Amino acid sequence: MEFDKELDARGLNCPLPILRCKKALAELSGGQVLKVVATDPGSVKDFSAFARQTGHEMLSSVESEQAGRREFTFLMRKRAH
Fold it and tell me: How far apart, in whole angstroms, are the C-alpha atoms of residue 39 and residue 28?
């Protein structure tokens, strides 16, 4: 899936991944997609709640393992208005 901007939130703990995501989405136009990569296991629940509360759409949430550590990749589409 294509995205317009990427945010590396690896190594950051709650609430920093969400705060950085919110700031990055503010710089995008409605409908654009932000890719976020995080390592905080709590980010799965946090990003899901963030999408519900803000109206931004979570297009995907994928867990993978890179170099022996878990990573979580989220694709968020900024709401249109």
Answer: 23
